[in-house]
Amino acid sequence: MGLSYGLFICFLLWAGTGLCYPPTTTEDKTHPSLPSSPSVVVECRHAWLVVNVSKNLFGTGRLVRPADLTLGPENCEPLISGDSDDTVRFEVELHKCGNSVQVTEDALVYSTFLLHNPRPMGNLSILRTNRAEVPIECRYPRHSNVSSEAILPTWVPFRTTMLSEEKLAFSLRLMEEDWGSEKQSPTFQLGDLAHLQAEVHTGRHIPLRLFVDYCVATLTPDQNASPHHTIVDFHGCLVDGLSDASSAFKAPRPRPETLQFTVDTFHFANDPRNMIYITCHLKVTPASRVPDQLNKACSFIKSSNRWFPVEGPADICNCCNKGSCGLQGRSWRLSHLDRPWHKMASRNRRHVTEEADITVGPLIFLGKAADRGVEGSTSPHTSVMVTKKETIHWDTLKWGKKSTKKVKITCYPASQTSPCCLASFQAHTAVGNLM
Known about the structure:
- The protein has helices at about 320, 330-335; strands at about 10-15, 40-45, 50-55, 70, 85-95, 100-105, 105-115, 130-140, 160-165, 170-175, 185-190, 195-200, 210-220, 230, 250, 260-265, 265-270, 275-285, 300, 305-310, 355-365, 375, 390-395, 405-410, 420-425, 430-435.
- It has about 425 residues and is an all-beta fold.
- Strand 25 and strand 26 form a beta hairpin.
- The N and C termini lie far apart (about 65 Å).
């Protein structure tokens, strides 16, 4: 029997946040070129771990220095490489460099991480690349042989798949804009639409219909982490579409067992990390069953100021306005915390046959032009800093010594030193600093 093992890598990039960005002088919307091959390739050998790192680690054309790369908690250094080499290579024994090992029911799991920690060159005090940490896992089956075939990081493309006891395979994937293929890179420009496709592979089961019951965005793969931003709630209401976003389910479905939806990308305003993870709770019902309040896919259409379902009676979405779609009106996030299995890892086997938690990410943001920042709540109003003229709803605005009120303002690009907005406020025009 051949080797069966897996590798999970999450590419974590860090970037600072700012209050307001100056307007750009050109309208160049060309995205930076992306790497055509994986930046990190890992070989889990019989007793060794081999890691090959592209010097073009970030896919921007700016090469990293081998001296800035280490492996594991003990900061093991790479093998000596020449200036003309395109890759940096690590070869370490599995138990060296501070690597940890965990024994599970069916596997030995060795864990470590690749660290890129840039340092200023010479007498300079600036950096042109970011610190990055890439967690690495090598899984060795306890009842199989081990070979030396190379495996690739699963974040290119990144997805997770879950098999239930009854062999239902749930998946959540990032797709290209035309929905025709899986997105090959997890990177986005802020303001882009993330195209997500949830699916269940039914095998020999009766025809099934898939629903996205709940989705939450967090800074880590832990769906219970804080801060968080709820995207789908109340058993299929895409509440992110209530804000300034155009997030919505795609109708009609391509197939009953597939559900597609788009989410306007954003970052958490009070955190320097320029990434998010999205965890969704997926479930199925027989395809012959008529959708209802507990099994639905509803989008908010701003032009008509109403909720509409992908399929089924229109009134099944009425509960989205009330936030009461079963379970005494509680959001799915709260009811989920009461379930005895909510703390299980999202990639582990469940003892349920019709639902699963699936995580996709990290979604990495290359820039912060026209940022859409959230404060870690589910409020339909969103705080935003802009680099172009844009009308925005703010929950509250502190305007000089006046009382705080809910207003609608039109923001213009501010200077680098004075973040400002020009606002129409109670039929008067005034200029003031945002506090």
